[in-house]
Amino acid sequence: MISKKTGACAFTLIELLVVVGIIAILMAILLPALSSARNEGTKTKCLANMRAIGMALETYSMDDERGFTSPIHPKAETEWLYDGEYEYGGKTGLDVMGDPDFRQENRILNKYIFGNAMSATLALYECPGDRGVPDAPVDFEPFFVEPAYKDRKIFDLAGTSYRLNNHIDFLGGSGFSQNFYGPYFRPRTRVPSTAQTVILEEAIAEVAKWNAATYPVTGWHAKRNRFNVAFVDGHAGPIYLSQQNDLTANYPNYWVLRGDQWRMDCYPENPVPDLP
Questions:
Q1: In Å, how far are 157, 182, 251 from 268, measured between CA atoms?
Q2: Where exactly are the structural domains of the chain?
Q3: pTM to 2 decimals?
Q4: What is the pLDDT of residues 28-65, one digit of tens each?
């Protein structure tokens, strides 16, 4: 309104409240869209990382004299510590993952990709949405949810946000022995479907893998039970994963976990015994 005394322009309280209300409505409309766009951006960056690592693993497999799908630590099968889920590549982690054997300069894929020129390129191993993993009925890696490390990035703890798919029955509650049922410790030629078999996954996917379908897990890109993975043939993409995909009952003595266009297992190839 215009003041009769001065002729200056001024807003009434009602007009001000109307403007504030309009701004609030616009923010309520726009913020979810902005959040969704941000999540899509982190997912795209994450997939690019996984695609690059997946292609590096594929090339490594072609050069490896045994044809293994991923690097195998020289001390593998001497202790559980060297089973290979995280120390294949990435930066030096914390606690056990900071062991001299697992420093970034000793991680095999790093040396294969970068040689002695390791630097900020190690960011390739970090998912931009990495927020650690939540507590769950089954903690597949209790180390990640210890009070000292809870809510820390997996990238900081393990040196990489991305876990190799060794697909091992570490609970031993299914009536069959502890074996690797996935592509870990296996030549590429013994992976029945390289385009569908997961070789690398966002670590949070393991929470969904080890907990029942009644315990939904929101992934690092704000999608429930949806996670980014890389496949043995080097390509990457998102998958839907929860335990309703567990088909073990149809395949005696073999842990078979599959979904639409993806699989964690290598059936009918024989499982690889875990020695430690």
A1: 35, 11, 9
A2: 13-273
A3: 0.84
A4: 675 564 455 565 778 999 999 999 999 999 999 999 99
